[in-house]
Amino acid sequence: MKRSAAEIVREYGPFAGVDAVHGVTYDGSHVWFASGDKLNAVDPESGKIARSLDVAAHAGTAFDGRHLFQIAEDRIQKIDAASGKVLTSIPAPGGGGDSGLAWAEGSLWVGQYRERKIHQVDPDTGKVLRTIESKRFVTGVTWVDGELWHGTWEGEDSDIRRIDPDTGKVLEQLDLPAGTMVSGLESDGGDRFFCGGGANGNVRAVRRPRRG
Amino acid sequence: MESLINAAARALEAGDPLGALNRVALRNDAPSLALRGIAMAQLGDLAKAKTLLRSAARAFGPREAVARARCVVAEAEIALVSRDLGRPAKMLAAARATLEKHGDVANATHAGHIEARRLLLVGQLDEAERILAELGPSPLPPAPQVVRELVVAGIAIRRLRTKDARAALARAARAASLAGIPGLTAEVESTNRVLDTPAARLITRGDERPLLLEQVEELAASDALVVDTFHHSVRRRSTIVSLGTRPVLFALARILAQAWPADVTREALMAGAFRARHVDESHRARLRVEIGRLRAKLKPFADVAATKQGFALTPRKTRQVVVLARPVEEKHAAVLAFLSDGEPWSSSALALALGTSARTVQRALDELARSNKVQSFGHGRARRWMMPPVPGFPTGLLLPGPLLKT
């Protein structure tokens, strides 16, 4: 396993009226984050909130190219990104113990925090297709270039780690500075991760290590 | 971290404990237990709240030190509000240190205030002041500021420093109006009332009048020879002779002081001090002995002179002798007098001090406890009795700030 310190390239926030960040996603132009009763879209260049949707947003956030998916209580809601309207919802696999959310390969990937699990879920029915065991409390989940990454947060320590999607084995680990939390994780498809700072109320951009 | 936990924590913060319970009622993981505990505390079921918080503290993993410490703080506050004072202070101190170490200043301060309140309640004023000093004079948000000032006022009231108490209460009132918590405002007002309500009765030359705490403070600085029924002592300024363990001598001193400058007959002294119905020769002999003892005790301030009828107090270096008594003299006043030193007493020590049987003292304590005039903590032989909450002591639950927010 490769282990290194996470390189934080930029911090966004704190934002007015936001006291915690629960989930993070990226739609190609804006970073979305869940702040309890709102989904907020941040312009990654200016660092300002461009728009907000009034929806329950208690944990992970994901984007499938057209819709936002947002965990609220014990459901995963499918939201029209343009109007903010909730289109459908499916039960969350952790029954409310759910944390991170990612969309990849036609499936939703849901972190179950204290159970230290990641579930692959059918986005239409909510059926659990398979479950990956992790070693640590799982926060955000993201897929990039066929790599499965997830945030951890256990006690006072957080890191971002790449795991083998078949075995759950940790392949690579980026440690965040002590006392820094990761709640919500999303790759921008390039060399950046966006991660939520939990009660800190901000969003960080962390460099993704180059392959090769 | 978790969706439902976040939703429940938001509900709690918005003052909706039932909404929070709805979301985590059936879950038994650590954060759910803690949230349920806080919700139950807010709903007033302190016993249930305590159990839940204790289970939560156990259920959090060894790496979740901050979450665990916040549970300990919440449980300590519940114990304090339910007057469960026998709890070891060590756990709270450790939790406070953990919170400080992890930069959770707000909750560490809250923990310190709980400890200071407990110390004030058990009469350890120096220790309470030490904790407040440790927390430092850093500016606090309004609500904790009210708590701090109420503790400062409580200490000042106990120490008979009414100016300091009033200043602290004025600061508390300002902070309470900023905090906008009605319970805190009421608490400050009721403490203010304590300062404006007669705290004692002054008996001198057969006359009596009520005294405010300020006047009690003035009296302490005056020249007068004071027979103090609160502390079972005789004093002039800083010279204090405690008769706490000598009830007969104290009774004699009080009778003589109340009659001063007149004398008191032997019969009246014997009836008052010995509770003797039929006076016989043995009582007369005992009176001679006890007067001799009292004379020795009062040597710094006064002589006890024999008169034709009986005895009279002749004070030195002062023209004033007064008795400081409770506003209303009540049954079991002697028991209350001992307890008003603010220290925890065992019933056997009280029995010893009062010269009565343990059973009599126990009956008196039970009766006083029923009317909330005294309180106890601990069980069995370790049980201790004290006066009820001192003024200036916030009684409501404030509970640690964001217990579980992510």
From TrEMBL, chain A:
Q: What is this protein called?
A: PQQ-binding-like beta-propeller repeat protein
Gene3D superfamilies (UniProt xref):
YVTN repeat-like/Quinoprotein amine dehydrogenase
Task: State the InterPro entries in the record.
Answer: WD40/YVTN_repeat-like_dom_sf (IPR015943)
Which top-rank group of organisms is this from? Bacteria
Query: What does the organism's lineage look like at the top?
Result: Bacteria, Pseudomonadati, Pseudomonadota, Alphaproteobacteria, Hyphomicrobiales
